[in-house]
Amino acid sequence: MGGTGSGKPMNLTLHVWRQAGPGAAGAMRTYAATDVSPDMSFLEMLDVVNEGLVARGEPPIAFDHDCREGICGSCGMMINGQAHGPWKATTTCQLHMRAFSDGDEIVVEPWRAAPFPVIKDLVVDRAAFDRIIQAGGYVSVNTGNAVDGNAVPVPKTDADAAMDAAACIGCGACVAACPNGSASLFTAAKITHLGHLPQGQPERHRRALRMVTQMDLEHFGGCSLFGECQQACPKEISIDAISRMNRDFVVASVMQAEERQVAGAG
Amino acid sequence: MNMFAAFWRSTIGKKVVMAVTGVLMIAFVIGHVSGNLLVFRGAETFNRYAALLKGVGGLLWAARLGLLAALVLHVTAAYQLTRAAAAARPAGYARREPQVSTWASRTMRWGGMLLFVFIGLHLAQFTFGWFDHATFSETDAYSNVMVGFRNPWWVLFYEVSMVALGFHLFHGAWASVRSLGVARPSGHPLHRRIATLIAVGVWLAFSIIPLGVYAGIAKPAAGPDTTAALPAAAPPATP
Ligand code: HEM
Ligand code: FES
Fold it and tell me: Shortest CB distance from B3 goes to which of A15, A78, A256?
């Protein structure tokens, strides 16, 4: 093993979810993937299978992809019952075929969650994540001159914790792996990322309240602390973030009531 | 008011309520089993303890109502979150391989339902005396226990239920701290020492009671035969 082109080519059987469009009835279809190099990425293997399908006049398997270097988060799919397949901390585009052996059967399915409707085959609509971000996953700034790089000191530990959470690429593996279909890890990662930084403090509680409310409005499930999300996350974000989100949400719920009292409303 | 409604409406709010009520019930369960172990000290000690509890009157009712409220909130939130989870994944996977979730976490709902049935039957048996009607005594809790656990089916039911409780707490005692957001960040958030201790401790302490009685380690009161003695042990000064 090791060097390029050294592995023996493999023959695999794929069971892939095919669905013509949103709302259409879908089904698992079986395809042979022959002569697969262990050095291919999983997406490259699908590309080769698709070339064969196109040559036969069949519609190719639709899947989402963009960067193919593990940073954009678009290539999510369920592979043999695991989000992004068997390798830890790895997106599908970074998963290589040496993870499999000759003769393997591979089941490939789209993320399954009501808030992630299937658009086609393996492609799902993750706009629900965008709406959660829009609800509060930002820091408001007044525009003007660019601020000096180090004008706001950030303690190293906070910067590290924020960075760890900011690694989230919004791929949706947490939702896909969660038995409840919960978006808690995603939402918590965003809340943790900004909540650790001084720039994120003024809107910290409003942010928690709004993002969690939006998460619920999208009809994701609640968190049962199964821990599957943390294991599936290609960026290894910890469920500690969820604890922190819950705390911020509780504090925010209390503070919001105080604000209303100060304002003299109900 | 609005704040509570909004809080309860959110999934996190429900989980926080589950965690708070769960922790309250854990505290109760630990106290309950500590008292119950007095059964091994004999009829007199055990019944004196039972009388002590009944003696506090108003306080006992406050505790009962508090526990009932906790249970109702806990079960309602469990039901609603289960519905929400099912709605969030209407179509399942053809193949799914859980990686790190414990068996305990994946059976919280089934285990919870068993606990629900258990609590009902347990109260019916030892608080209301619906089962061993002829021998049930309001004042001789010890004798009720001796009679109840002479029946192997009751023993089996209690043993199974206490295994379920142990699993419920193996996940629950750990999860509650995280739901409440008071867990310290950890390099290994899935590790749980204290929760394991609570789960195993509560399970062992509860499960030896029915077995101990059935095996004859805790014997019927030494003096007159328990079943015959129940009117004799009766009315102290309770009005
Ligand atoms: C009697 C019926 C009961 C039912 C139906 C029930 C159901 C459940 C369910 C479904 C969960 C998981 C919720 C989730 O994460 O989605 C849970 C959590 C929990 N339960 Fe229960 N339970 C019951 C009784 C008890 C009892 C008697 C105790 C304690 C002695 C207890 C303590 C806990 C704790 C501590 C949690 C963890 C809460 C959290 O995750 O934050 N439960 N229960
Ligand atoms: S294609 Fe961008 S992360 Fe895989």
Answer: A256
B166 lines ligand 1 (CB under 6 A): no
Q: Do the chains contact at A80 and B97, CB–CB below 8 Å?
A: yes
- Do residues B170 and B196 lie in contact, with contact meaning Cβ atoms separated by under 8 Å? yes
Does pTM top 0.90 for this prediction?
yes
In a domain, B97, yes or no: no
Q: Does A111 touch chain B (CB under 8 A)?
A: no
Q: ipTM value of the model?
A: 0.92
Strands (E) in A80-212, as ranges, are 82-83, 105-109, 118-120, 123-124
Query: pLDDT, tens digit, for every residue of B92-125?
Result: 999 999 999 999 999 999 999 999 999 999 999 9
Closest ligand 1 atom to residue B79 Cα is 10
SS3 of A13, please? strand
pLDDT tens across B80-93, in order? 999 999 999 999 99
Which of B14, B16, B95, B186 should be substituted to probe chain A, the one whose Cβ sees the most A Cβ atoms within 10 Å?
A: B95
Q: CA B48 to CA B38: how far, in whole Å?
A: 10
Domain of residue B146, residue span: 7-87+107-229
Domain count, chain B: 1
Structural domains in chain A plus CATH codes: 10-119 (3.10.20.30), 126-143+150-265 (1.10.1060.10)
Question: In Å, how far is B201's CA from the nearest CA of chain A?
Answer: 22
CA distance A132 to A162: 18
